[in-house]
Design goal:
about 260 residues, alpha+beta, 4-stranded antiparallel sheet, 11 strands, globular, disordered C terminus
Length: about 260
């Protein structure tokens, strides 16, 4: 049976609801991921470790390779690690964790609120904010030069990112910027660039573009190149993404930050 999926894109993150059994192949993306099971356990695969089964919400740090599947409904929050998900990133950096105690209960309560109503921008923002608040005390300081460079990079066309000038604008060499980025997020800056390109292509797909045109929007050579990047970054295929019911937030709404 094909899972019914609903996705709300909010800023650089979003919320993904799967009503039936669902999951993704192993992947790594530049977002903190919190998967909350609604019915049944979660099957968790981690790179270099045997699969495990848990009945708790699972938190995955940005850039960490893994896969989560479930026999029933799930609600997933995708949080930017340089903003709304900074606290969660500090907790999960380089790891996949099963939550316990108050953090797990907060995540479950927020997920139930999402399922009670329609998944729109307001509901998605509330869920993402509730997840962020569960980790707010762990919010780490991140070098502001890295944050400014990332934000400028996200505003550029993803096809040919000008990393050298971005680094120079912050008084850094390209290699130093890459080093600071890795220290903050636990994976290479080039992975973030790939993430931005994939999301540009995904937004084109959501807007109704054909896969070939979506590939061009993300700076990929062709549909096959796009498919490989989407699978590695999101664990899914462009076709599966296109079939998901998306709610895309207007660009004017801006970035989300921890309240």
């Amino acid at each position: 049976m094909t899972a019914r999926e609903h996705t709300a894109l909010v800023g650089e993150g979003g919320v993904h609801v799967v009503e039936d059994a669902g999951g993704a192949r192993r992947h790594a993306l530049h977002l903190v991921k919190l998967v909350v099971p609604v019915d049944g356990p979660l099957a968790v695969e981690r790179e270099g470790a045997p699969p495990i089964e848990v009945r708790a919400p699972v938190l995955t740090g940005a850039g960490v390779a893994g896969a989560v599947s479930a026999p029933g409904a799930t609600v997933t929050a995708f949080l930017p690690p340089d903003g709304l998900g900074a606290g969660a990133q500090a907790v999960a950096r380089g790891r996949v964790l099963a939550l316990e105690g108050a953090q797990a209960e907060r995540a479950r309560a927020a997920a139930r609120e999402v399922l009670r109503g329609r998944l729109d921008h307001a509901a998605a923002r509330d869920f993402m904010t509730a997840c962020a608040r569960a980790f707010a005390p762990a919010r780490p300081p991140i070098d502001r030069r890295v944050l400014r460079a990332m934000r400028r990079l996200a505003e550029q066309a993803p096809v040919r990112p000008a990393l050298g000038p971005l680094a120079a604008a912050e008084g850094l060499s390209r290699s130093r910027l890459s080093h600071l980025f890795h220290d903050a997020f636990g994976h290479p800056l080039r992975d973030y660039v790939t993430f931005l390109r994939v999301m540009a292509a995904v937004r084109a797909l959501v807007a109704g573009a054909a896969p070939a045109r979506a590939a061009l929007a993300g700076g990929f050579h062709d549909q096959a190149h796009l498919a490989r990047a989407v699978a590695a970054t999101l664990g899914r295929t462009p076709g599966a993404l296109a079939r998901s019911h998306f709610v895309q937030e207007p660009a004017a709404s801006g970035r989300m930050v921890v309240p």
